[in-house]
Fold this sequence. Notes:
This protein is mainly alpha-helical. It folds into two domains: 1-29; 31-102, Irregular (High-Potential Iron-Sulfur Protein, Chain A), CATH 4.10.490.10. Helices cover 30% and strands 6% of the residues. The chain has helices at residues 2-27, 36-40; strands at 78-80, 88-90. Strand 1 and strand 2 form a beta hairpin.
Amino acid sequence: MDNRRRTLLFVAPAVALGLAVGRDAMAQAKLTESDPTAAALGYKEDASKVDTNKFKNIVKGSNCSNCNFYQGAATAPSAPCTALGGKLAMGKGWCAAWVKKV
Length: 102
């Protein structure tokens, strides 16, 4: 009985850590243009490929890396985006949820 308790004391934290790491890895999934939320917001991995006829509110020079929802440094090639479910958006991308980073 003593060995089972000791084993549980060592195994339980490892299992908890594994679950936490797995959850973070899932949250860090790369965003695709075909993702339903991304498609609804007109997300493009390259801001120069945005249909400016469809999205007339695009500001010249705007991209994910200078958006308030982009959770990385402006120089990061990709980072989580809170507007797109925490998935990794490309820094040079753009979507209709863009708001200038302050």
